[in-house]
Each structure stands twice: as structure tokens, then as C-alpha cells.
Amino acid sequence: MEAHSKKMAEVKLFRTWSSPFALRTVWALKLKVVQYDTIFEDLSNKSPLLLQYNPVHKKVPVLVHNGKSVAESFVILEYIEETWKQNPLLSEDPHERAAARFWAKFGDEKVLPSIWEAFNSEGKEQEEGIVKAKENLKYLEEELKGKKFFGGENIGFADIALGWLAEYENVFEEVASMKVIAEDEFPLLSEWKRTFADAPIIKENWPPRDKLVTKFLAHREANLLQKVPK
């Protein structure tokens, strides 16, 4: 529970400690300086409240505001942006807002699946996955030309959506002994990762690195075992 909240806040966030999708919501709320209570979920034993507030997908994150729930990380980000106007995550310019949403969606539909595929494979299959991932990442590298963040000079919607790259991707590389985002191939993206990860509000809310490594090592080993012919 947030230390600065002396009583149950009107905003509650259902999450797990390791979900990068839930972390987006944490960052957005922190950047907006919104007080909230955190309810950590065990997805192997989901609470009745989680099932009540997200009966369709039954997963995190779920934001509850004044008793009404909002599910799915991008939908939650939009809700936060519309509800709390301070420290905007989206530009006032319609085209820039559309671009931010486009890159956020591109990250989840193209970048994440391709890196995840490489992470959960070995040998030639992993090499092919890395090639596919790099093809997607080239678009992000191009988009960062002349920018500090995807949102310009400040962290914005697309940065939060792609923020998992700044730490989780490093963990994936370590666990799977692979290199996807090399400094010489992706200098702008590499610099963005460092700048984003070191921003105080972002840095203060990363999950423990050692716990992430342990979690994803077990996850990868389990996935690789499933691929072994029986």
C-alpha cells in the first residue's frame, strides 16, 4: 500500500509485482502524482475482488476508481490521461497523439512478440527470432531521431508503453544469452533505454532485478521443456 495514503484511497490498482503491463499503470499514476492503493495479486490464486472487477479477462492490471473498474493497460492509460489532466502523457496535437498510440500498439503487437519468441527459443530458431525482432526495432530507432523520448522532451504515452524495453529486455538478454539491442546497431534506442530507466519515477519503481531474472529463467526453462519431443 502506498505509504502516503493514510486511508483507503479512491484509486486502487490490482497488479502483480512483475507484470510490465501493470508497471505502465504505476508509472502513469506516479507521473500524474495520483495517490492510490496497491493490491498485489497471485495469479495462481486470483482474489474474488479481481474476478469481480475484471470478469472478462481475469487478469491484471485493473484500476478501480470510485468503485468502477477499468481493465487492460492501454485503456487504463487513456483513462488516467483523461481523468487527471496534470502532467499530460499525450500531446495536444491530434497527429502526435495518434502517433503515440500507433507506436504503443506497434510495441505490443510486433516488438514484444518477436523478442518473446527469441527469448523462448534456442539455436537457429532463436537466431531467426532475433532477426525478426531487430527488423521491428529499426522502426523505433528511426522514430527516435532528433528526440530524447518518443514523446519529445518528456516521458509520454509511447515511452510508458515501450518502457519494458528499458529493463525487461535486458533481463531477457541475460537469461537467454542473446543480444538484441546492441549499442552499435541501435544507438538512439540504447540511449533512450538508459535515459528512460534512469528517470527518478521510473527508476524507483522497477521490480528487483534478481527476482526478475529468477522468474524469467524458470519461465524460459519451462517453455523449452515443452518443446522437447516426447
Molecular structure report:
The protein is an alpha+beta fold and 230 residues long. It is 55% helix and 7% strand. Strands 2-1-3-4 form a 4-stranded mixed sheet, with helices on one face. The relative contact order is 0.12. Residues 1-8 have low confidence and may be disordered. One of its GO terms (molecular function) is glutathione transferase activity. Residues 9-88 form the GST N-terminal domain.
Describe the structure using short key phrases.
230 residues; alpha+beta; Glutaredoxin; Glutathione S-transferase Yfyf (Class Pi), Chain A, domain 2; four-stranded mixed β-sheet; 55% helix; 7% strand; globular
Sheet having the most strands: 4 strands, mixed
Question: What is the averaged pLDDT score?
Answer: 95
Q: Distance N terminus to C terminus? A: 46 Å
Number of domains: 2
Helix content: 40-55%
Order of adjacent strands in the largest pleated sheet: 2-1-3-4
Number of strands: 4
Unreliable residue runs: 1-8
The rounded Rg comes to 18 Å
Text of the CATH class of the largest domain: Mainly Alpha
Number of helices: 10
Strand content: 5-15%
Structural class, by secondary structure, is alpha+beta
Gross CATH architecture of the largest domain? Up-down Bundle
CATH fold assignment of the largest domain: Glutathione S-transferase Yfyf (Class Pi), Chain A, domain 2
Domain GST N-terminal: 9-88
Family: Belongs to the GST superfamily.
Catalytic activity: RX + glutathione = an S-substituted glutathione + a halide anion + H(+)
EC number: 2.5.1.18
